[in-house]
What does this fold into?
Amino acid sequence: MSWTQSLSLENAKSVYSLANTPLYVLRNLKQDAAVTQIARSRSSEEILHELSIRKSSSEETLDQTVMPFVLLVALGSKNDLTAVKEAERFSGSFGEWFSTIARAILLTTSPTSLSKLEMTRPPLVAAARKGNVASSTTAKLSSKGE
It folds into this structure.
């Protein structure tokens, strides 16, 4: 049993059925629960492997037709542009809309990286140490007022 069989594709099927442009599919699938679940729980390699399996099968049901788009948008959600470029090679198997969505993801995604910065604060310098200008001035003012 493939891990994709446990996904709920009801919303994705509705989006695909109502779509008149590939960008409508992309925009709406970005908010789909199945896309979010895949992006969080699966690696880019697992998603690409699932796409490669599906490219050789013929789509018979709406679930089978929609799944490549869900997988592609999940890859885009991971901000893994290398994986999206690799997935774009499967466009011939999934049609023109697949290619258009892949190109849109590549054009609109900004690559990001996370870096851990450790910052240390220098020790606070005491303002009134003996011998510095501030303490000398304070001492002079204090002695005049007595």
Remarks:
- The mean pLDDT is 83.
